Amino acid sequence: EPEVTQTPSHQVTQMGQEVILRCVPISNHLYFYWYRQILGQKVEFLVSFYNNEISEKSEIFDDQFSVERPDGSNFTLKIRSTKLEDSAMYFCASSEGLEQYFGPGTRLTVT
Amino acid sequence: QKEVEQNSGPLSVPEGAIASLNCTYSDRGSQSFFWYRQYSGKSPELIMSIYSNGDKEDGRFTAQLNKASQYVSLLIRDSQPSDSATYLCAVLGSNYKLTFGKGTLLTVNP
Question: What's the pLDDT at B8?
Fold first, then answer.
């Protein structure tokens, strides 16, 4: 069964550094998303992406964040100048229609 | 601010019983609703979607939707210890944005 994959599974970085989280969506899906979940809190929407552009972004998704589809398979989330409060699980998801399927997540720890 | 509310639990049921999980949402215009299961430390796993008023059954799971009351529920029949997880209610908004509730922790006791 096709699934969303994410790398790395765990990323540790120092405050102020840039990180790139990578995702390979399900191959025939056209819609891509990033969500995050701070430990003990709800899953929060960050951004949706379709046809090589952002469809919607939340107020969390400020200038510190960017997304890119650099080739036909990868979808990336870049976080510039990381802060302690960026520590969270970051989930990539993809969909063909309304149903979104999530990857296993990347645990980002900012020290 | 569009909200999705769930009782955080924990909800504890014996093995073989019916577990009933509830969710309310604030945006009356919402049309698409989902239940995800999340095991501790894992990602959300889609288990049910529902778009029309009434019941939708899939195996041991039944989703129920009442748009007039802005209420979605999930019933799990013949609950198993492997069903122990946090169940997340999610509502789809504009541009495919999912808004999640905080989740209900379900524990099924053998």
Answer: 81
pLDDT digits (tens, 9 = 90+) for B17-31: 999 999 999 999 999
Residue B90: partners with Cβ closer than 8 Å, 6 or more residues away: A43, B4, B33, B34, B35, B36, B44, B98, B99, B100, B101
Task: Report whether B100 contacts B4 (CB < 8 A).
Answer: yes
Cross-strand bridge partners of residue B13: B108
CB B2 within 8 A of CB B91: yes
pLDDT digits (tens, 9 = 90+) for B34-83: 999 999 999 999 999 999 999 999 999 999 999 999 999 999 999 999 99
Check residue B55 and give its pLDDT: 97
Phi, psi of A30 (to 5 degrees): -115, -15
Contacts of B101 in chain A (CB under 8 A): 42
Tell me the backbone φ, ψ of residue B75, rounded to 5 degrees: -110, 135
Dig out the tokens for A37 from the structure. 């979940």
Q: In the 8-state DSSP scheme, what is residue B59?
A: T
CB B98 within 8 Å of CB B91? yes
Structure tokens given for B38: 């999340």
Contact B98 A55 (CB under 8 A): no
pLDDT score for B95: 87
Find how far residue B54's CA is from the centre of its chain.
15
B62 neighbors B56 (Cβ within 8 angstroms): yes
Q: How many beta-carbon contacts under 8 Å exist across A and B?
A: 57
